[in-house]
Specification:
heterodimer; A: 119 residues; mainly alpha; 0% strand; rod-shaped; B: 481 residues; alpha+beta; 4-stranded antiparallel β-sheet; flat; disordered N terminus
């Protein structure tokens, strides 16, 4: 495995691991991790294309590590999808709450009960 | 106790793809249930307050009606249930009486009834709108010699219609109108009538400061009523007489002939007591029914409320009232008693059943007189107990009104909470929408990365092996949204 290849794989593994470690729902942090991983993937894609163009097959070791990163990415994606589902559920719940609160507010604006002491 | 909310939050069905999806679903359900709690509480509180207000308003109305009935009974005690009557309504009728002592008055020699003055111009006019009624446009109306100038100099005023309008506009107690006889060359006449009875003369003068011409009028000047009472001749401008017999107002309706007389009587009427007692029993039971609905195992929302126990106590004071002396010491001696153990009152008008309170109709005249003493007045005796009820039913100072005011405050506080929760939910919605948008973008980006990486691996596999020998399908979430 060439030093260049090793560097590329390490970069991908690092950015994937970073992305996987992010637990907080900080869009900017996740966005930065995604952008960094995009650059690493693009570099690997270009390197593979170059290797194929030079008729140099990529070693199975490299392929195994790439596949491993791909699997890690799958897990992150699954977590992100689930987090999105929960957010969507929360949004629907808040929407229903708002609907009920507005109904309550409107019904509270009714006329006060009149008092009759004349019998 | 409270009314359960009917509009609960419905948890979202989670569409996750992992083995942990059911756990996420449980989490969402719990979160929704927790989020529902404060809203449900608000809904129940508001519903409870509304129900309480309705119950209290019904109770207030019923107690006020009962208080009025007790006051009326007290008033009977004051005026001894005296009513007026006439021996001959074709001669005189009693309109009202506030007399507090019985009495009888004979009226004779009703020689005249009061009538209102009424005149019509002797001469007719050709047209009501164009024929001039004044030579100068200035006329004068004299009522019992008191002159009032009538100005007809305005455009279109100097005619019969203008004259009638001008007289009516003066508001002198005389009504003018135009009569159309429909016959002859001068079919229009002016009619002048006094609004009140009594002897009054009306004159109409044209050009009072110049020619001073009297307009010929036909008719009568009205008359006063004349009659004798206790040998004294009385004249009255009105047939309704209120200042001759103390506390009694009567109206003359006809004249007598010869020695004919009419007797007006102010007498005590015991049926007024029995009618009011029956009314009292009905109103008492109405209040008792409302109270019973708030007492016991199936009590309503006002159970334990001080107003309930207070009104109960006020009712009890009515039943337990004892006059300090006299033949009628309590309500039971007037025929009012408890029907059974349910607290329902009944009034025995005439039943001789010994298990019932004594029948009202069996009371002697002396007992009836004592009954008036028992009833007292609005400030004493049984009638004064209306004040105990008014402490609750008064729309301004009553305890029920005060409680209503407190509930209004509670409602205001709930509304404030609703407003705060609404603002929080609005903010949360905005945040969640941004998070969802961000999540969509991230997922799309991650999918793109995965696809790119997957394609690179596939490309290398095809180059190296001629086929794809690894499981590198890119993950595609099945969830919607």
């Amino acid at each position: 495995m060439s030093p260049e290849c090793q560097e590329l794989l390490q970069s991908l593994a690092h950015t994937t691991a970073c992305m996987a470690r992010i637990e907080r729902e900080d869009p900017s942090e996740i966005g930065a991790a995604l952008a960094e991983r995009s650059r690493a993937i693009e570099a690997i894609r270009r390197w593979i294309a170059a290797e194929i163009g030079s008729a140099r097959p990529v070693s199975p070791e490299v392929m195994a590590r790439l596949t491993s990163d791909l699997e890690t990415g799958k897990q992150v994606l699954l977590r992100r999808v689930m987090a999105r589902e929960i957010t969507r559920a929360d949004l629907l719940r808040v929407g229903r709450e708002l609907q009920m609160l507005r109904h309550l507010r409107d019904s509270s604006a009714r006329q006060p009960v009149s008092l009759n002491c004349c019998g | 106790m409270g009314t359960t909310s009917t509009s609960a939050l419905t948890p979202l069905t989670f569409s996750g793809v992992s083995n942990y999806a059911s756990d996420f679903q449980s989490g969402i359900n719990r979160a929704v249930s927790i989020a529902q709690l404060p809203i449900t509480q608000l809904q129940n509180e508001e519903s409870d307050i509304t129900t309480k207000e309705q119950l209290a308003t019904s109770l207030q109305s019923a107690v006020a009606t009962l208080a009025t009935t007790v006051t009326n009974l007290g008033n009977l005690g004051t005026n001894q249930g005296i009513t007026g009557s006439s021996s001959d309504s074709s001669l005189a009728e009693v309109d009202s009486t506030s007399a507090t002592t019985p009495g009888s008055y004979t009226i004779s020699n009703i020689t005249a009834l009061a009538t209102a003055a009424a005149y019509t111009t002797t001469n007719g006019y050709a047209d009501a709108t164009t024929t001039a009624v004044s030579t100068t446009g200035t006329m004068q109306l004299d009522i019992n010699g008191t002159p009032t100038t009538i100005d007809l100099t305005g455009s279109g005023d100097n005619n019969l219609n203008g004259l009638a309008s001008a007289i009516n506009a003066l508001n002198l107690g005389v009504t003018a109108s135009v009569i159309d006889t429909g016959s002859g060359s001068t079919p229009y006449y002016l009619s002048l009538s006094d609004n009140a009875t009594g002897q009054n003369t009306i004159e109409l003068v044209d050009d009072p400061t110049g020619a001073d011409t009297q307009v010929a009028l036909s008719g009568g000047s009205g008359s006063n009523a004349s009659f004798e009472i206790a040998g004294q001749t009385v004249t009255s401008a009105s047939n309704t007489i209120s200042n001759v017999i103390p506390g009694m107002t009567f109206t003359l309706t006809g004249t007598t002939t010869g020695d004919q007389t009419v007797t007006l009587t102010a007498g005590s009427d015991s049926s007024q007591i029995s009618n009011q007692l029956q009314n009292f029993v009905t109103q008492y039971n109405a209040v008792q029914t409302l109270l019973q609905a708030q007492i016991g195992s199936n009590a309503g929302l006002l159970t334990g409320d001080p107003m309930i126990t207070g009104v109960e106590s006020a009712l009890q004071s009515l039943l337990s009232y004892q006059a300090p002396d006299g033949a009628i010491p309590n309500l039971t001696s007037l025929g009012v008693g408890m029907q059974d153990t349910t607290g329902v009152l009944s009034f025995n008008q005439s039943d001789t059943d010994p298990t019932l309170p004594p029948a009202f109709d069996s009371l002697s005249s002396s007992q009836i007189a004592a009954a008036f003493s028992f009833l007292g007045s609005s400030t004493s005796g049984f009638g004064a107990l209306a004040n105990n009820l008014a402490e609750f039913s008064d729309s301004v100072t009553g305890e029920i009104a005060a409680q209503e005011s407190e509930w209004q405050t509670d409602t205001t506080n709930i509304n404030t909470q609703i407003t705060n929760l609404t603002n929080q939910a609005n903010q949360m919605q905005t945040t969640l929408e941004a998070a969802l948008q961000s999540a969509d973008s991230q997922i799309a980006q991650l999918q793109s990365q995965q696809q790119l990486l997957s394609e690179s691996i596939q490309s290398e596999n095809f180059t190296a092996f001629g086929y794809n020998n690894t499981n590198t399908q890119s993950f595609t979430p099945s969830s919607g949204g």
